[in-house]
Fold:
Amino acid sequence: MLILGLAIALSACASRPRDVLTPVPAAASGTDKVDLLVATTRAPATEAGVLFSGERGSGLALNNIIVSVPQQREIGTIQWPSSTPGNPERDFVTTQVTAMQPDEAKAWFKRVAGKQRRVLIFVHGFNTRYADSVFRFAQIVHDTDANVAPVLFSWPSRGQVFDYNYDRESANYSRSELAAVIRAAAASPAVSDVTVMAHSMGGWLAVESLRQIALQDGRIPAKVTNLILASPDLDIDVFRKQVMEIGPKRPHITLFVSRNDRALRLSRLISGRMTRLGAIDITKEPYLSQLESAKGLTVLDLTALQNGDRLNHTKFATSPDMVQLMGDRLIKGQSVNDSGLSGSGALGATTVGAGQVLGSAAGAVLTAPILIFEGAGRR
Structure:
């Protein structure tokens, strides 16, 4: 029943037009643009406007994709075209697609980077087509307004709910290429710092790539300061061992978890009933004790949030409250407990054990509180 319900909930994806990446002329006004660098290990698609399929490619391909975002829309939403070509005044559309070579990335960064010269690398999750990953990341970048150079890493997901095992192996297939992207960003003298954000199954890929870097190079590059894992579809025992092998000089880790995440319930069944990191209950043992002894870790429990998606799996991107909190604090690498966040009645925080219950975030009213735990050793 859970599999059937998940398939029904995701059926809307199948009805979307596939060729949404065919460039269209930009609207004269009423739109914003998001300039993305997209790295992928997918194989090229044979269909026009799709660019890359869900099959595995032979190497790493780079593209510069500019997405037009209509201004008249709700925060956290993607306005998909009902047919192609889309209308820039009401739909997300692509206005430019340019294949790039690695040595051209410097010119792209110089064009899009703000004064802080920060890079945000996003890794999507399971059941995600190439176009889905492009538009979702464009929405996140636009809505958080975080002043970063946005880099999307899109690995070969087939975008089919019943291809879970194929997707998991495709994430494994792509870890060396993601490690190369992270290394290249951190090695550039033009970059000040790097944040890696990953969703769902992409969380395993992100942590495993950082582990690979640490084992091969002796440590994570100092510029990689933050790792954000949203609804990570990651075995909690595997995560614990990955973090230990990365070593003490690791980026600060922020987790978004939700006990009512329906997608992670399915993953738990498929994975031999092993607890998924994104579905832990941080108020109960053994997780509470483990969190109290953890260093450099922040956990946001989004279980009570009601303004997210139907599966409760992408609340970090679809909830306007979380989108604003990410842009105001987390992507910038700031503590959620910094002075000013809870001041002037903006949060009305009250201590609950080792964490805090927050009634609102960054001035935006929540339908229910977020439980936030912030461990010691904030980097």
User: Anything to note?
Assistant: Confidence is low (pLDDT under 50) at residues 338-368. The first strand starts at residue 31 and ends at 44. The two ends are 44 Å apart (CA to CA).
